[in-house]
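Recap from last week: sequence in, structure out.
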Amino acid sequence: MLDSVFNGLFDTATTTSSVDVGSFIACLGAAIFLGLIISAFYMYKNKCSKSFLATLAVLPAIVCVVILMVNGNIGTGVAVAGAFSLVRFRSVPGTAKEIGAIFLAMAAGIVVGMGYIGYASLFVLIIGFVGMMLSKLKFGGTSTPYFNKTIRITIPEDLDYTGVFDDLFGEYTTKHSLISVKTTNMGSLFKLTYNITLKDTSSEKEFIDKLRCRNGNLEISSSLQETKIGEL
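Predicted structure tokens:
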């Protein structure tokens, strides 16, 4: 009686047999458990929202159910692929790491839905630990981020800013570039913005003191350089 409740309305003798309730619950439970593991791995040294973590937790289960219901039927599989192609992500662009986590969750759901719970568990654990190690080792990151600075110098209007600080930049920086020039205070002052790479961070104060002597002790600000690198 219970099995008949979970049979498809359109199941016939010629179609693939339906999934039994025990296997369905086992696969669904495994998918939810793996989703929680993926969320836990992603939280390691990553800033993320609660909604994104919740999505990672339930996504393997959703994909698993779809794969279970397709159950080897090619026609149904094509229909499901067409339905998923209508889905659009939210307008806020995701990072490469977020997209990778979503693909991991979907792949885990597909493998569990095919019945390979052991392989899915091994797959999630290996990829999760590899991701944690890459984050811990700061793989792909620069080893000297604090040497890159953005410095803003205010100078009087009668001071020609073309090459006025080149000797100081040559002494204290390995490279420098003038990013922008802006007038202020009714045109009586100029604000210059440079991106620089310091030779030694311990000499930053000495460098700024010499700049102050050159610009008439007007305002100077220094901050970490904002490098916006496109994802993917």
